[in-house]
Amino acid sequence: MLNYKQLHHFWTVARAGGIVRAAERSGLAPQTLSGQIATLETDLGVNLFKRQGRGLVLTETGRMVLDYAEEIFRLGNELEEALQSRATGRAVPFRVGIADVVPKAIAWLLLAPSMDLPEPMRIVCREGKFDALLGELAIHKLDVVLADSPLPPAMDVRGFSHALGESTIGFYAAPALAARLAGDFPARLDGAPLLLPGVEASVRGPLLRWIEAAGLRPRIVGEFDDSALMRAFAEAGAGIFPSASLVGEQLCRQGGLVHLGDAKGVTETYYAISVERRLTHPAVRAISEGAHAKQNFA
């Protein structure tokens, strides 16, 4: 069985860059640290360090062990923090990854129920590319990832996709641009400037197919990985903005946009991806239960 005290000594030496420096920082004798690491190497049957000049450097195996040690002691610190938070009544961290293609208003709508739990939560949001967030989920740096698509089958990450619900997709435009569009919907999209989500957005393909099936040829003037940036361009009048109808009222009220119509049959589905088949984290359960209770969500 792994001796975590010896692993901690290894971790201390590796981070300090040498036994002498680690001894100065830890207050332990160099001989103690050296002996503990030698015992760990013997127990594991590997060499963690090798001599280079007058110093020590990590072997390839040592670097791998260090990665695991970093994660082990990071989780230990988080456990200690969580227990202290419970004891003192402080908010417990709830770490959420949000794929950058998910509209910010949708992310808030989904996360809101986690703010009303009896046990106070401190939400830590990380926005980024879907693949990168899944990597952080796999090593437990995140509790859940919110995305517009399920976990890809080919992804080498153990996780489970929990459908939260879906929304139809509508088209929105700044008032000045909307006033220049002739005809009824969807014909008024023909030849009009259109903003599109980037290639990673799951709704992009269905939108383009809907446009083609309707015989429309809008001018694509911009493509955006970040939904908030696409909305900013739309509010400035740069082009027509496709977005979840679920937040359409907010877009019109706060962003001053005009609803032109909906892409019939095109929907966007939102998922909570976790390492658990059954949701046990109270904040993640609250998100799932809250989403299913909202109107327009499945």
Automatic annotation (TrEMBL):
<keyword id="KW-0804">Transcription</keyword>
<comment type="similarity">
    <text>Belongs to the LysR transcriptional regulatory family.</text>
</comment>
<protein>
    <submittedName>
        <fullName>LysR family transcriptional regulator</fullName>
    </submittedName>
</protein>
<keyword id="KW-0805">Transcription regulation</keyword>
<dbReference type="InterPro" id="IPR036388">
    <property type="entry name" value="WH-like_DNA-bd_sf"/>
</dbReference>
<dbReference type="Pfam" id="PF03466">
    <property type="entry name" value="LysR_substrate"/>
</dbReference>
<feature type="domain" description="HTH lysR-type">
    <location>
        <begin position="2"/>
        <end position="59"/>
    </location>
</feature>
<dbReference type="InterPro" id="IPR036390">
    <property type="entry name" value="WH_DNA-bd_sf"/>
</dbReference>
<dbReference type="InterPro" id="IPR005119">
    <property type="entry name" value="LysR_subst-bd"/>
</dbReference>
<dbReference type="InterPro" id="IPR000847">
    <property type="entry name" value="LysR_HTH_N"/>
</dbReference>
<dbReference type="GO" id="GO:0003700">
    <property type="term" value="F:DNA-binding transcription factor activity"/>
</dbReference>
<keyword id="KW-0010">Activator</keyword>
<dbReference type="GO" id="GO:2000142">
    <property type="term" value="P:regulation of DNA-templated transcription initiation"/>
</dbReference>
<dbReference type="GO" id="GO:0003677">
    <property type="term" value="F:DNA binding"/>
</dbReference>
<dbReference type="Pfam" id="PF00126">
    <property type="entry name" value="HTH_1"/>
</dbReference>
<keyword id="KW-0238">DNA-binding</keyword>
